[in-house]
Amino acid sequence: MAAKKKGKLGASAGPRGGDNLLYSAHQIWLAGLGALSRAQAGAPKVFEDLMREGSKLQGGALDAARSVVMQAFQGAQKTVNKRVDDVKEQATETWDNLEKIFQSRVQRAMHQLGMPTAEEITALSRKVEELAASVGKLAATRAKPRKASSRPRRRHAG
User: Fold this and answer.
1) In whole angstroms, how far apart are CA 110 and each of 17, 32, 90?
2) Helix or strand run (H / E) with residue 87
3) Is the pTM of this model over 0.85?
4) Measured distance CA(66)–CA(84) in Å, rounded
5) What are the distances in angstroms from CA 37 to CA 10, 28, 58, 158?
6) All residues at 6 or more sequence positions from 7 whose CB lies less than 8 Å from its CB, including other chains
7) Which of 20, 31, 114, 150 has CB 3.0 to 4.6 Å from 15, enough for a Cys bridge?
8) pLDDT digits (tens, 9 = 90+) for 34-69
9) Taking a C-beta distance cutoff of 8 angstroms, is the pair 82, 89 a contact?
10) How do residues 113-132 score in pLDDT, each as one tens digit?
């Protein structure tokens, strides 16, 4: 039987690193402990180099995490803004429809009560103005001054 090859981290049992976050974190921890013991046993320079490298990796990971969080936040903000705009538009349309319904019902109720429409009132106003002008002309023709007679008026006794 052929023997199984061990993975990069020397683990032959358990799930692969990408399958289980806890397993991966544990493997990284063990690798760090091994590097620490080698650095302490070797030279302090190696230990300092490892610390610098770890600091760079941590900073890069934080920057990457910030970038991902900001992208997610901006995406969520765009989605929320779009939905708010959609709701505003729908509310405006609904309000306009309610206003039209209200106006038509009020107009119908006024018609049932015998109230004239705006067009009817305008037409009636025109007719009144025409009649007033006609009456004015008629009154002007009848009110012409009469010639005074030279005879004195008689008084009735009585």
Assistant:
1) 79, 87, 30
2) helix 44-112
3) no
4) 26
5) 17, 14, 20, 152
6) 16
7) 20
8) 877 776 776 677 777 778 888 877 777 778 888 888
9) no
10) 988 888 999 999 999 999 99
Domain housing 77 = 21-101
In a domain, 6, yes or no: no
| Cα 46 from chain centre | 58
User: How many whole angstroms separate alpha carbon 110 and alpha carbon 116?
Assistant: 8
SS percent in the chain: helix, strand, coil, step 5 = 75, 0, 25
Other CB atoms within a 10 A radius of the CB of residue 30 amount to: 13
On whether residue 42 sits in a domain, the answer given is yes
Whether residue 58 lies inside any domain: the answer is yes
| Torsion sign over Cα 90, 94, 99, 101 | positive
C-alpha 77/C-alpha 73 separation (Å) is 6
The answer to whether residue 15 sits within a structural domain is no
